[in-house]
Write a structure and sequence with these properties.
Blueprint lengths: L3 E7 L2 E6 H21 L6 H21 L2 H11 L3 H9 L4
Antiparallel strand pairs: 1-2
Length: 95
Amino acid sequence: MSVRLIEEKEQGEKKTMTVYERLQKRIEEDVQALQTLRKRGWLVWPMDLLVKEEDVGRCCFLAEEWLTGEQLRELKKRVGLDDRQWRKYKTRISK
């Protein structure tokens, strides 16, 4: 199943991204941003971390809604999240 989500223009050409590709890109960017924020330690407002974690959590919920089981397992593997981390991010928006 290849659901089209968004079209982006790159150098005058249209590039269509699937839901899977868009979610992968978004989660990877947010997890990287979280790692950067955590490295900065006490120089980061707690709310900055919370907002990024909630954003990853929303992407996790969307991934579970839109992707098949196989695609979801592949996505988790590619972005480097295990089931425990995945659930942790989802609970950030469940409160």
